[in-house]
Amino acid sequence: MDVPTEVIEGCQQGRPEAFEQLIRLTQREVYSLALRLTGNPDDAAEVAQETYLRLLRSIKSFRGEAKFSTWLYRVTSSVAITSLRKRARRRHEVPLGDEEWQDWQAPASGDPGAELDRRQLAERLDSALLSLPTGYRAVVVMRDVYGFSLEEVGNQLGISEGAAKVRLHRARQKLKEMLVDEAPPSSRAAENGRRDSGGVS
């Protein structure tokens, strides 16, 4: 996500055309994060809309101490988590406040076969993420996909850093189990072969 400084400054000065440009430049990433956290397109659309309303009120407080994209992700995740808490109360879902699987989206390759494998892996991972309980999905998306620190994750979710770490470990374990279950037979055979030979899984 690349937002020119002049666009941010224009928003801070209250220029409508600058804010419209900001939305055009960032709406895909904002919606994507909202969808991964909420797991529901309608809820994600509401979160995106509320995120921009909050930005309109708070963008003057942005001082450039962090990247704008990082700041925007924090605002989006905060709005999404508030939405999830409200939804959990309505639907009696798993609450958010209870107690090395990084870089899962490999860089694009020039090899068409590798690119297909990458897209299939990304689709399987997104599907697995959506099947996680809300609290687990939130912590693994924020930490492993968007790079929040465990301290930031804990602050956003209203739990301790230690609780966030425990939940992250459990979420990763659940994802690994789901991905092994969904893997093609050849992949499972290779995995079993590594385990039988004492290799690291």
Quick synopsis:
With 201 residues, the chain is an all-alpha fold.
Based on the model shown, name its key terms.
single chain, 201 residues, mainly alpha, Rna Polymerase Sigma Factor, Chain: A, Arc Repressor Mutant, subunit A, 2 domains, 9 helices, 0% strand, globular, disordered C terminus
Q: What's the topology here?
A:
Blueprint (H helix, E strand, L loop, with lengths): L4 H8 L3 H23 L2 H18 L9 H24 L20 H20 L2 H12 L4 H8 L3 H22 L2 H12 L5
Helix pairs in contact: 1-2, 2-3, 2-4, 2-6, 3-4, 5-8, 6-7, 6-8, 7-8
- Supply the CATH superfamily name of the largest domain: Winged helix-like DNA-binding domain superfamily/Winged helix DNA-binding domain
Residue stretches low in confidence (pLDDT < 50, at least 5 long) are: 92-109, 185-191, 197-201
CATH topological fold name of the largest domain = Arc Repressor Mutant, subunit A
Radius of gyration, in angstroms, nearest whole number: 19 Å
Provide the β-strand percentage band. Answer: under 5%
